[in-house]
Structure formats: C-alpha cells, structure tokens
UniProtKB/TrEMBL annotation:
Cleaved signal peptide residues: none
Name of the protein described by the UniProt record: L-fucose isomerase-like protein
GO molecular function, one term: L-fucose isomerase activity
Cellular component terms (Gene Ontology): cytoplasm
Species: Propionicimonas paludicola
Amino acid sequence: MISYQLPTVAPRPALAPKTLYSVASGDLRLTANLKTWSMQQEVERRFAAAAAAFGWTVTRAHQEDPATGHGFIDSQRKGMDVLGAIPAEAPLVVIEAVWQYSHHVLAGLRDHRGPILLAANFAGDFPGLVGMANLHASLTKAGIAHSTIWSEDFTDEWFTEKLNEWLTTGQIVHDTSHVRDLPSLPDSPERELGVALAAELAAKKAILAVFDEGCMGMYNAIIDDELLNPAGIYKERLSQSALVAEMNKVSDAEAAAVRAWLDEAGMTFHVDNDGDWTECLTDEQLTSQFKMYIAALRIADDFGADAVGIQYQQGLKDMVPASDLAEGLLNDPHRPPVTSRDGARVLYEGKALPHFNEVDEGVAVDALVTNRVWTAMGLDPSTTLHDLRWGDQWGDDFVWVLEISGSVPAAHLGGYAHAHSYRQSGYYFPLGGGTLAGVCKPGEIVWSRVFIADGVLHVDLGRGTSVELPDTEVQRRLNSTNKEWPIMNAVLHGVSRDQMMARHKANHLNVGYAPDAATADAALIAKAAMFEAMGYRVHLAGTVVPELG
Ligand SMILES: C[C@H](O)[C@@H](O)[C@@H](O)C(=O)CO
C-alpha cells in the first residue's frame, strides 16, 4: 500500500493567562520602516503599559530583524508566518504608528480565532491612524470581526475605558449614532437628476482605466467587477509599463509646453537643479511628470476611459518620478491642453479626467459620480481624495487635516497662482517628482466614502466646511504632517473626532466643493439619489440636509 510523506503543521503554542499578543504591520519600503521604527517602539511601549495597568502582559509575536534593523511585518509571507505561529485563540492587537500595508496581515487575521484589536496613535507625523483606517476597511470588506482604538498618548480616560472594555468583553462598541440610512428622498430636481444620471450610467456604461490594480496592500480599495458592473461601471486593466512606453514617445517640446502653461498660470515650482536630486526637485523630474500627464490622457483616450488610476506605489516608483503632479492636473477641468498623437484633437477638452490616487477603486466610483453630478449641476467638478490624516481642536471645532500624499486640483487651492510644487520625500519616493500642493481654499464641501461591507457596496455621505486658519496654525499642521503635501483644514458637520474614527471605512475620503451651503446640500441630495439608483446602500453621516433629517 503506497504511503506518502504527509506534511505536518506545527501545533500553535498554548495561551498563557492574561496574555495578549501584538504584531505591527509596516511598509514594503525599508527606508520608510527604518524612519518610523523608533516611534513604533515608543507607541508599543505605551500600549503595553496601559494593558499592564489591567494586569495583562503583551507578548510581541515577532522581533526586530537584525537583517533589516526594524521590527515591522514588511511582507505578506512574513505576516502569514508570524500570525500562524501564535495561539489561535489569543487576544491579538495590531499596533500601528505608521502607514502600513493591510495585506501583510490579512491572511493571518482571517484565520485568527481570538478577539482582534487594531490600535493606533492619533498623531500627525507618524500616522498610525491612517494605517489603521485602511486595515479597518480591509477587514470590514473581508468580514473579519475586529475592534478599533486610538489615542494620542495611550493614557487618556476614553482610551483606558475602551481598552478595558476590550480586555474584558473581547470587543469595543463605539458611538456611531451620527450615521443613518438614507431616508426616502422627497421628489425634487436633485433627486430626479440623480436617478437620471444613474439610468444613463447603466445604459451607456463607464470605464475606469486602472494602471496596475492594487496599491500598498489596500485590500478594501479593490472592488470586484461583479460588484461594480451592475451599475454600469467596468474596469479597463492596463499596465504601468505601457504608460512608461507612451511617456517615452512624448517629446520634450510637448512637456515644455505643459510647463509653460503652468508658469503662465502662476504655479510655483520649488526647483533646485544644482542641488542633490535625491533631495531636490529638478526640471528633469518635472519634465518626466509632464510626459506622464500627456501619456495618461492619450492612453485614456485610446480606451475611452471616464476615469484613470495610476498605482505608482510600488511598481512605477522605481522607474519614473512621482505620478502626483499628473494626477492633480487631470482632476481639474482647467489644465494644460493635450492633443492626440497626431495633433488633430484636444483630449478631454475643458473637462477633468477624474484620477483615483493609489488606484483606490472606491475613490474611482465616487469621483465618477461626483464628476457627473457636479457637471450636470453646472458646478466645477474638480474633486480629489484626501487622507483622513490627523486633526486637532481649534476653538469650539475639531478641525481635521485632510491631506492627500501628493496633489489636489489647483481649483481646490483657488487656482494655479496658489499652487506650489515641492519634491516628494526621498524615503517614500526615491526618484522624486513634484507635488501639487498648497492650502485648500475655504468653502462648503461634500465628503464621502464608498466601501464594501457584508459583500455589498455602501457609501457614506456628509457635509463639511473647509476652514481658513491663521498661517501659523496652518504651518504647525503642515510641520506636524507632510509639508510637501496639500492640506485641507476641514470641519465635518455633526461628526466628532471619535465618531469619524470609529465609522470611517478607509484611509481616504472624497471631497467636492460647492459655491455655497445650499448648493452643497443640493449636490449631496443628487449624489445620494444617484448612488441609491445605482443600488448602493446609502448612509448619511453627521449633519447634512435639514429636510433629510
Ligand atoms: C507615500 C505614502 O505611501 C502615502 O501614499 C500613504 O501614506 C497614503 O497616502 C495612504 O493613504
């Protein structure tokens, strides 16, 4: 009788009493992990001290790797090995003081049987809250039960009470009373518009051009075609190598024409061609970025795309300077003109070509809907995502720092004369390239997030105000985060800091401006009606349109 060498699976270790295990997911980039490791250790020390106060011991499931010099889980394989070697029933905490890749720990968390807690520092510089927000969204998509907690220093009363709740019950119930399902919409021109736009989308379809799907482990940001297609949205999967090939066909003269247009429009490029290019922005980096802008439009035109997303991190970052400048230009209808290769047509003339940063497909759908609603309402459709990056009290308000990692449409800054381009940081962007940055103008906004939960598509919609703060305060906020990136200081109506942290299903949120509060309210209704007619579960978050309750 034949017998085979059967593989054996090592038994998991036994769980000691009053012991919880901790892991830390990190970046793929060694430079980023080395820059943030000491803060990570400090945050872990503070968390362990808080748990010890309740008589619990935190056992770190993986140690600093002498080969790398840091203690992050920096690959999916490592995550599987680490999480496969701890007691399956252990209370497990994922502690984050950094931006991290959720797929590094997703597999291990999917198999874990014990209670899972995601814990993050609420800090501007090393944004654990951003990393945790993505893991929260990715676990929600995967249907993996977990709790979340955050704190500036892990000693505040709110944090301590919530930690105790988790240690004693295995879960934390947060206040998300600011969220409710969209009530039935009364007839209105806005409802009619939303329904009609959804019908048009279903009939004529729309194409999202994705240059290499999936970015930095953001599992939540990949939406299965079977969820997207029913409303009429289809993906065109393209390759970043094709983008580079097209960039290589763009002439220096064409790139120079883009630069000349931006110079004429008053944009400021903080260039130092004599400095060290690994730290300074150069004209050569900018030329490459303008070629990417032109190439992206030409390929999008080839495929009849309605929106485009460039993964950039991680494949393209070792090939060409950052994609951010091209992204910010594409998101604004007022931008340097680009012709077809034969010069016969101006591509997407007078229109924005919505770009979804980091190929976040939740943002793609949202930007497409915003573009169509705002355009139909005669509003400037310039839109963008931002990281829900950080925030702080200002007077009676909690004012968020919304800060995408690179670029916004110049319209959000009040025009190109207010736009600045700084070199992207070396530890994240080795080949450099400029941002499209500045301080977002004050004004009324509609914010939103498309996400997957329970296997279906949802959207949270809210209203907010981008507020003007004194220069000193704005600079403090930039110095506390990334001063090379654009910043929006925003109050989200009727949502507290902790309610937003508890509910928001992503590191990103979408924003669109409106000229006044009434128009913003109307745009929100039209957007809600369109999403509802597209079959999405629509939720209102915070104080929105009075008549909608
Ligand atoms: C440069 C970094 O990787 C950023 O891209 C990252 O922190 C994010 O923006 C996450 O949303």
